[in-house]
Design a protein that fits this description.
- The strands form two sheets. A six-stranded mixed sheet has the order 7-11-10-9-6-8. The chain has a five-stranded antiparallel sheet with strand order 1-2-3-4-5, with helices on both faces.
- The longest helix is centred in the first third of the chain and has 12 residues, at 8-19.
- Strand 4 and strand 5 form a beta hairpin.
- The protein contains five helices and eleven strands.
- The chain has helices at residues 8-19, 60-66, 80-84, 126-131, 147-155; strands at residues 2-5, 31-36, 39-44, 47-52, 56-58, 72-75, 89-90, 94-97, 106-110, 116-122, 136-142.
- The chain is α+β, with helices and mostly antiparallel strands and 157 residues long.
- The protein folds into two domains: 2-65, Roll (Nuclear Transport Factor 2, Chain: A), CATH 3.10.450; 72-142, Archaeosine Trna-guanine Transglycosylase, Chain: A, domain 4 (Roll).
């Protein structure tokens, strides 16, 4: 385990990677990275920012701090316990969503109060959902209690 601050050049590159997710973040105070065998974990002001394991993703805390501009899904309260336990998202649990979601997009799931709690990969589009609300809409990538989340809880201040 090695932890250090990113250079300004690497921080600028990280900001661009976050912009790909619709996240605009001013990270002028510096970003730390902790490298572990499980992957890279980025922290901003000691709090979870992003992680890179099998892919690169923002943390749930970063979503709630910086609010992505798109690729969001709002789910009903009945879906939340299932999703936080790792279930995939079915169309019937969706209340509202970004109309620009395409198959393969990384999507950010939030409750009706606007709190983001899951990151998923879309397997259908808005148009698919409008035609048929049955079946899976997105598969789980990151949620509270998963490996990346638990590592962040261990290393953040």
């Amino acid at each position: 385990m090695a932890r250090h601050f990113l250079s300004k050049k690497d921080t600028a590159a990280l900001i661009l990677r976050l912009k790909d997710f619709g996240i605009s973040a001013n990270l002028e105070d510096g970003v730390e990275i902790e490298q572990r065998k499980e992957g890279k974990f980025y922290l901003y002001k000691g709090k979870p920012l992003a992680f890179e394991t099998v892919g690169f993703y923002p943390s749930l805390q970063a979503l709630n701090l910086f609010h992505p501009s798109g690729k969001w899904i709002v789910v009903d309260d009945g879906a939340i316990p299932h999703l936080t336990n790792g279930a995939n998202l079915f169309g019937k649990g969706i209340v509202d969503l970004d109309r620009d979601i395409a198959i393969g997009d990384t999507v950010f799931v939030r409750n009706s109060e606007g709190i983001y709690f899951a990151i998923m990969k879309a397997v259908k589009t808005y148009g698919d959902l409008a035609k048929d609300r049955t079946g899976e809409f997105a598969i789980m990538i990151h949620r509270p209690g998963d490996k990346a989340y638990n590592i962040f809880m261990e290393i953040s201040r």
